[in-house]
Design a protein that fits this description.
By secondary structure, the protein is α+β, with helices and mostly antiparallel strands. It is built from nine helices and four strands; from the N terminus they run E-H-E-H-E-E-H-H-H-H-H-H-H. Helix 1 (about 10-20) links the parallel strand 1 and strand 2. It is globular. The N and C termini lie far apart (about 35 Å).
């Protein structure tokens, strides 16, 4: 059994979707970051960084934080959604790191400046508007002629998809990125993704672009 500590954010959704995809038994614990639950003594004992998500795997005794590290751990634990060797393995890790190092942080800043604090920092808004478009263009180019980010559905797709699901907050029209739109809808139709999107509790259905 895995205890899973999370909230309704893209980084949390990565792991809830992954746990559903891997078919691993888990219990979700809501860490309401809007109320400061991440700073409670009990949670800091699990994750001193005071971020979500985190897991405690009672089968192996491993406690782990950081969504990218958790995805790699679950893939290696189960032998699924990460090729064991060769170029496909390295490219899967490459695109996971692309999400961790660029796509996620940039879109998080876009949320902050362009949605939650619009008009307060015009320079930052323009900076992250341009960089958000650049990253979507990169993702769209990668998905040209591909069903998934690498050869098969993988932890890289699970990492990137939840961030794309916030396209409204990014002020992105997915019709401008047809390969991203196709890929996004393909994953959105997966039952595991739908279930994972409702963890730790249901807030709204999976967002769909206009015309769907």
């Amino acid at each position: 059994m895995i205890d899973f500590y999370t909230w309704i954010t893209p980084n949390g959704l990565k792991i809830s979707i992954a746990l559903e995809e891997f078919g691993l038994p888990y219990k979700a614990h809501a860490i309401d970051i809007t109320k400061g639950d991440q700073f409670s003594a009990d949670y800091v004992a699990i994750n001193p960084g005071s971020k979500i998500p985190a897991i405690v795997d009672h089968e192996t005794g491993i406690t782990l934080a950081e969504s990218g590290a958790i995805l790699l751990y679950l893939a290696e634990k189960t032998g699924r959604f990460l090729p064991r060797e060769g170029a496909a393995r390295h490219h899967t890790i490459e695109w996971l790191m692309w999400q961790m190092g660029g796509f996620g942080p940039t879109l998080g800043h876009a949320h902050y400046f362009r949605t939650y604090n619009e008009g307060r920092a015009p320079f930052a808004e323009e900076l992250f508007r341009k960089d958000t478009i650049r990253l979507y263009e990169t993702l769209d180019a990668r998905l040209e002629g591909r069903g998934y980010l690498v050869s098969d559905y993988s932890i890289a797709d699970m990492a990137v998809w939840p961030w794309v699901s916030r396209f409204v907050r990014h002020k992105i029209d997915l019709s401008d990125f047809p390969n991203v739109r196709r890929w996004y809808l393909q994953l959105a139709a997966r039952p595991q993704v739908k279930r994972g999107y409702e963890v730790p509790h249901f807030t709204a259905p999976v967002p769909l672009p206009p015309g769907v």
